[in-house]
Amino acid sequence: MPDGSTTARAFFVTPRAAQEIASIASRQGRPGAGLRVSVSAGGCSGLQYGFDLEDKAGDDDLTVTVEGTNVYVDGVSLDFLAGSELDWHEALIGSHFVVRNPQATSGCGCGVSFAV
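The chain above was modelled as a monomer; its predicted structure follows.
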């Protein structure tokens, strides 16, 4: 897995994802903004991933910096995301962030919802 964190509750970010975050932030007029990755109740499998631009980390956030781009994960979400990797996937039918989560026991077809 790419560099990101060395703790037991690590969350990893690929360089490809970091580059896309920087590109999205720049297009939205917010260069330097990072991406918040969160987990909330909902979706067809019980839990769902959320992605939002953020200008700074929260008090309890894990901050992963790759190629100068920050990704923020709050402590509660990190319980569900520990050991996961954030990547960017491009295909003819669309492009999107992908979370490879070793804790997920099942997921939906769109990849946004999962169960543990």
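The beta strands are 12-13, 34-41, 47-54, 62-66, 69-73, 85-91, 94-100, 106-107, 113-115.
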